[in-house]
Known about the structure:
Structural class: alpha+beta
Amino acid sequence: MATTTPSRRKTAARRGTAAPGKKPEPAAVPHLSVAERVARGKAARSAVPRADHAKFEPPPSRADPVALLERQAKTRVPELVPIRYGRMLVSPFTFYRGAALIMANDLASTPRSGLNVQCCGDAHLSNFGVFASPERRLMFDVNDFDETLPGPWEWDVKRLAASMLIAARDNGFSAKEQERIVLDTVGQYRTAMANFAGMKNLEVWYSHLDVESAIQEYRSQFKPKAVKRTEKNLAKARTKDSMTAFSKLCHDVDGKARIVDQSPLIVPIDQLTQGGERDEMFEALRQLLRGYRETLEFDRRVLLQEFELTDFARKVVGVGSVGTRAYIALLVGRDGQDPLFLQMKEAEASVLEEFLGPSEFSNHGERVVVGQRLMQAASDIFLGWLHIDSGLDGKPRDFYGRQLKDWKGSAEIEQMVPQAMATYGKLCGWTLARAHARSGDRIAIAAYLGNSDSFDRAIVEFSSAYAEQNDSDYQDLAAAVKSGRITAETGL
């Protein structure tokens, strides 16, 4: 197992070429006036009317959704793939969570405004949540960037809106309630983008959603019992840190902390290696962490040097990510009661690249990190990346790293009533607009969206049609399991 130096951007095409030995000259960045940017948005609306986004008509040649999932499985840990299928089969909503490639394939044929941003690539409602800022305040933001790539802003909006409608259907909400939830979500995106369009650049960059402020804003709209439950969940999120993970995931072995074997979900390094291989791999892992450390800001490197690697394990994470290689590293600081858990997660090519072109970054871990820093108001202090020339399977892999737990929390979607889901949708809509406003032409996008709810209603129609398609795809996966075409492992 070995590392290479951190990757560099594939920028020749973007920056132009230069004579050997000379750095390429940076390309000039155009600076349009506000009026020109408004005109750009209105021109895009004339070329692709907002009502066109209501369309979703899968072609007869549409790719087999199960075949797309099988294609993804070819690069994943074989024994973990059945767990992925099992998690996707829990409900149409959990299927949707794992079906980012399927939807990217479908979105590729839908109308595009031509206005691009840094896309999340998988902006469903469960990929938003709370976590701690470096200043130790709870913030609400997008929290999954495995598929991030520059692309059409409307793809993220459509994935978010469809997830809202599918979740509302799963919860048994009426058709009218489903429509209201999507309208509130998209309407908040539109109005937030208009607000960001009127802000100065630094005002947009400093904007964030403080959880405590949001609770105060919406407190009057909910019954005291619901507010109390929310505050209880947030208090619980504040306890989710490395110390809590340490107490749950570790035990004492001959006076040393070791990660507990919870196979197949958590498999310690002792179970992944045999005999003397453990010591050899452990030293290789130390080298990997040193390479990862070099991608951090200098002050974070100094902090990380204060911790010593003591154990390592493979971990199953998420729904769509199951089967990719994810590891947790236990490090200890000043004493045995000063733990730090890092998660190293494999980064493959974004599902969007097949339809939008390859990333400008040769390392997909770097692609994830750069996208996350662009879209989030504040990112984990240990967010970095690395490359392995030869992993456990002898193949090169890209990874990104961050803390495993740092006040992280997610909404309990299945427990939501219609009003709560509509409010949650507003939070997601505002957050996605802010994320897009940081990297895209917020003034042009706001001009494209306009002041009416034409776009909002088009997305309601799209979401309804896509929910039907998602149900059909979910049944296709269930049928593939029943026929023996694929194997699903449930309950894990």
